[in-house]
Structures are given as C-alpha cells and as structure tokens.
Write a structure and sequence with these properties.
The complex is a heterodimer. Chain A has twelve helices and two strands; from the N terminus they run αααααββααααααα. Chain A has helices spanning 2-33, 40-58, 66-85, 91-114, 124-127, 139-161, 163-173, 175-180, 185-210, 217-232, 237-257, 263-277; strands at residues 129-132, 135-138. In chain B, a hairpin with a 2-residue loop joins strand 4 (53-60) and strand 5 (63-64). The chains are: A mainly alpha, B alpha/beta.
C-alpha cells in the first residue's frame, strides 16, 4: 500500500508539472489584463494536434513539432488579445464571452479537420517506462515535468528581471503611470499574450506526448487551468507550480485510493475547500493599493 | 519653452479646461495654484497626452505635443509625477525606479541615475528591496519623484507633492525641487499649498473653474488679491 501511495505521489507530481505548463499562460494573461482567456485550453489542444500532425504526416517525433506548436498557439493567443483589446465597454465580462466563443470555434474546427477520433503518440521512446528507484513513469511524463520546471523558472525570471517582464507587471499595477515611464501598454500586453502562447505551445506537445487527445478536450483543459490559476492566487508564478502539483497529487491519490471516476470531483472539492479557507488563493496576497 | 495655447480638454462629455494659455520658460519653476476642481491636474494630464485635447495646442520648443502618445514623452525629456504617486505597489522600490529608465536610450545610464536618486533620497536606498506598497506616504512620494528623475527629464511636471504629507517631509521635497531648478531643470509645480509654492516659484498662475485668472512673477504677487481670487471674492 505504501508503495502504491508513493507511486501515486510521484505520478501526481509529474502530472502537476504538465498542468502548470497548461495553466501558466492563462494565469499570465489574467494577471496582466484581468482577462480570463477561456480559449486557452483550446489553444493548448490545437498545439497538441500540431504534434499529432507532425508525427503522423512527417513521421517525426512529436518533440519536433515544438516550433510549429508554439507558432500556432502564439498566433491564436495574439488573435485573442487583438480582439479583446477592441472591447471598449465592460471588458471583464465581454472578454469572457468573446474568448469562450473563440474556444468553441477552435473545438469545432479541430473536429472538422481531424474528426472526433482519439489520438496519442506512437513514439516508443516517449512511452517507454523510466524507473527512478522503485517509482515508474513514462519517459514523456518525466520530460514534460522537467520542461515545465525549466519554463516556469524562465517565466518567473523574465517577469522579475527583464525590461518587458517588469513592464508587464507595471502596466497591470498602474496603467497610466506605466505610460508615463515610456511603456506602451498595448505592446506590453501583446507580448504577455505571445509569451502565454509560447507556453501553451509547449504544453500542447507535452499533452500529446503523455496522454490522449480528442476535440472536446480543450474545454476541460481550460477549466483545469482556471482552477489552478485561482488556487494559486493572482500574480504568483511559483504559486501556479505549487497549485498544479497539489492538484496533480490530489487527483492521483483519488485514483489510487478510490476510483478514477471521481478524479475530477476531487479536484473541484480541493478548489472549493482552498477558496473557502483562503479566498485569495494559496499564494495570492491581498492586493495592496498605493 | 513649454507653451499651452488655447487648450480645451476634459473627460468625455464633461469639459474641464476652457481655452487656457500658459507659458513655462526654460530653467524656471512655474507654480500653478488654485482650489479643488480648478483643472490643474487635468491640465497636466492633457499636456502628457493622458487625456485627449479637444482644441488648442501644447508645444515644446515650437514642436507640437498634441496627439502624441504618452509613452513617447519620456524620450522627449518630459516627466510627470502624478497626483496620488501611482507607484507600482507590488514591485520593489528598486524595480519601480528602474521602470523610470524604461525607454531604451535611458537604460545605459540606469546605474548612474539609481545612484543619483539614492543620493537624493537615502531612505529609498535603505528600502530598495521592499515592496513599494509597504512604504509610508512620504516615502511613496519620494519614490514617485525619484522614479520620474530616472529619465533625467529637462522638464518636470509635479502634481500636488505635498498632499497629505507631514511638514518636515514637505520641506525636504521642496528643498529637492529647488536643487533641481538650480541644475537647470524646468519645473511646473501644481500645488494647493500656496505659501510653499510661492516661496520656490519664479512665476505663478492662478486657475479656477478651468480658466487662468492670474499670471504674475512670484515676487510681485499681492497675497491679499491672490487670496480673494482663490476664494472667488472677485473676478
């Protein structure tokens, strides 16, 4: 039993890494523009289909699809931004409807182009079992987790140190003051959406490499990313990683100790419980004013 | 010279400034005083392009600023220290200052300007790793001023720096303004503290209800008349 639980913790940890990749783009656009991109999961799914196309048509490893997946997700993310930026009135509510509609369009486009079949990678090396002590995982899961750690760290450093990363935070904190500093807010926000797109692209490839994809999955991914963003608390990059791992482990333990049928329910219960105790999320500070 | 000519501006359907004209000679400190709602803040926001101008023009050395993007102003040597400080609350003091040097041409001088600002405000140096949101009102005003100085502006517009601050800090800030003027920085100071403003200013404008009522050299101001105009007993 102890071994089973240990294995569940390990699987949950690795899964959480991929969740973080999926959620961090959503968290970024939410943090910078107060816009919840409800098409984010669909963009991740679209990127996953790029990996499928590259593998099935070109007979290459799904990992070779990373540049294409990034480009497609970036283009989609930029489109969402450009449309949202045109909304003049009641942006918070209207952007929800707008991005939700974009998500529906993507889902149906995917269905139209690639049919409703389920797909997963045929790559033997990615699906191979890797042993770590007494714990097992697929190689792709380990890759996904490591890639996530690297990318989330890079994003964190970008927001903390780079000129445009800090500008993103400045614009979200005091838009007029940021303009006075010489920062063009529209350009800065577009950059943050492009970065969200890059991460969604990687998340899509990780998803296809370690799991099964089908057209209606996008919506479920958006919900998962949203749960993680709220769990983490707005404005915390390490919080997203921690919340993702927490969700991954909760799901894995539920599957091991109870049933895979209630896996999603466990995630929702965790979500409600955390919000009940910590309304600002695990790592979200109460927003200060100055 | 920064000139404002027949400027009309406001917020959407509500017009605030009614064709005001003001001139701010280089190297001088010009104070704009007036009661609440006179349009002083609106004037500064219109000069910086934060709100659209309906009529009239703003020129810097006969070069029109009307319709320009706010984010191009820093590159032209203008800085506004906004009312209410507007510091980036969830960023460190040092990052707030760094953002003041955001335009590419200013970035190479970042280290030198940080040192200069920390020299002017040693308290900011002590607190450089703290979040700006945790500063006191006086420290936040110093940060807002320091952040504006990071781009080495030729022209500094300052909106109500003394608002809500203890007298000792107000004196400190006014001493720094005087120092900046001596270094040749042109300053436009919006202030409700008339007494303090007159003490540092070369010339003064009095605004009320979106119009300019008086423009005189600070030394020549008749304080009784100023007082009467300020409180609308005349004119």
């Amino acid at each position: 039993m102890a071994e089973l639980i240990l294995q569940a913790l390990y699987s949950g940890l690795l899964n959480g890494g991929v969740y973080a990749l999926m959620a961090i783009g959503l968290a970024l656009s939410f943090g910078t523009m107060r816009v919840i991109n409800l098409a984010h999961g669909e963009l991740v799914l679209l990127a996953a289909y790029m990996a499928y196309v590259v593998e099935s048509r070109l007979d290459l490893s799904p990992l070779a699809a990373i540049p294409l997946a990034m480009a497609v997700a970036c283009a989609g993310s930029a489109l969402v931004y450009l449309l949202v930026a045109r909304i003049r009135k009641n942006r918070e509510l209207n952007s929800l409807m707008l991005s939700f509609a974009i998500g529906i369009i993507i889902t149906n486009a995917v269905l139209l182009i690639w049919s409703g079949d389920i797909h997963s990678t045929g790559s033997v090396s990615l699906q191979e079992a890797v042993q770590l002590g007494s714990l097992y995982s697929m190689r792709s899961e380990l890759y996904g987790f490591l890639a996530s750690l690297v990318l989330v760290t890079l994003l964190w450093q970008w927001l903390a140190k780079s000129w445009y990363g800090r500008a993103v935070r400045a614009v979200s904190s005091q838009r007029d003051a940021a303009k006075l500093m010489g920062i063009n807010p529209a350009k800065t926000e577009l950059i943050s959406f492009l970065v969200a797109g890059l991460l969604a692209g990687c998340a899509g490839v990780a998803l296809y490499s370690s799991s099964v994809i089908q057209p209606s999955l996008g919506h479920a991914l958006t919900v998962k990313a949203f749960i993680i963003t709220v769990l983490a608390g707005v404005g915390s990059v390490p919080g997203v990683l921690a919340a993702s791992v927490l969700l991954g482990i909760t799901e894995a333990l539920t599957v091991t100790l109870w049933s895979s049928a209630v896996q999603e329910l466990a995630g929702m219960l965790l979500f409600l419980l955390v919000l009940f105790v910590l309304p600002n999320g695990l790592f979200g500070a109460a927003r200060r004013r100055a | 010279m920064l000139s404002v000519t027949d400027l009309r501006a406001g917020y959407g359907a509500i017009n605030i400034l009614w064709d005001v004209s003001l001139r701010f000679p280089l190297g001088q400190l010009t104070a704009i005083i007036g009661p609440n709602g006179a349009g002083k803040t609106t004037l500064l926001r219109a000069i910086m392009g934060l709100i659209p101008v309906t009529l009239g023009d703003v020129t810097l050395d006969s070069y029109s600023l009307r319709g320009r993007n706010t984010w191009d102003m820093a590159g032209m040597g203008l800085a506004l220290i906004p009312e209410g400080r507007m510091v980036f609350a969830d960023m460190s003091v040092e990052d707030n200052l760094a953002m003041g040097a955001f335009p590419k041409p200013h970035r190479p001088a970042l280290a030198r300007n940080l040192e200069r600002v920390f020299g002017l405000f040693p308290r900011l140096h002590e607190r450089r790793r703290q979040l700006a949101g945790s500063l006191s009102g006086g420290e936040a005003q110093m940060l807002a001023l320091g952040r504006g100085l990071m781009s080495e502006p030729r022209l500094l517009l300052i909106d109500e720096p003394s608002l809500g601050l203890a007298p000792v800090i107000v004196h400190e800030i006014f001493a720094i303004l005087r120092g900046l003027k001596e270094q040749g920085v042109t300053i436009v100071l919006v202030e409700q503290n008339t007494h303090m403003a007159l003490a540092v200013a070369d010339s003064v404008y009095l605004m009320r209800s979106g119009r300019v009522l008086l423009n005189e050299r600070a030394a020549a101001v008749d304080s009784q008349r100023l007082h009467d105009l300020y409180f609308a007993r005349e004119g």
